[in-house]
Amino acid sequence: MASEHDPVSAALRDNTGCVELSDVGRAAVFRFALSTGNGILRQYRRGGLLGPVFGDRFLGNRMRHEFEVSLAWYQLGGQIPEPLGVAWRKTGMMYRGAYAARQVDGVTLLRYLQEDMPLADTVLESVGSTIRQLHDAGFWHADLQVKNIMISEGKPFLIDFDKARRVTLLGPVLRSRNLLRLRRSFEKQGLSLDNFATLLKGYGNLAIPGWLACLYRLRGMSAGLRGAS
Question: Are residues 133 and 36 located together in one domain of the fold?
Fold first, then answer.
């Protein structure tokens, strides 16, 4: 990390060396050069109805939270882009800031499946196994979906630990919520549920409660109706 101190610090401090990649929803995303490879800087911004009101301000220090949870998973050998640093500023009760990680060259799982890339079944089982490792270590991902899983050289990397948390024991309900959220993203993006079934093979044994599966099914139907109206 010592060799990356200067570019990471400069990017976090005032966007020095950064090239903007996107400015959509909850973050503005930039790329900056490292001594080896590139880094990604994400400036936190609110999306949805609260976006125009609060902009880039949050009541909690979400940047520091994401950094700490991501670093804990990375240090356990988790497949996540290497966390590089975090910066924040507090004004009154509000926080604003940015989070930096090493760039992983690859595509999202969504694009991987849409473009019918090779060894899809092997990759999907590897995704399931990676999620199982995350859960077994006590980490719960708040937004597990096909756009938050990167595939690089056939290996999956989980991203966006913004609202993730670590608990002492991750029980079947929390595990199932993550997987059902992921299944819903398969459906929303028009991906085959056969692919999701292959992913579950990699995850291994888990008895998803029937009532919870029904609830997520109803939520998906409700979202579909709202989109069609």
Answer: no
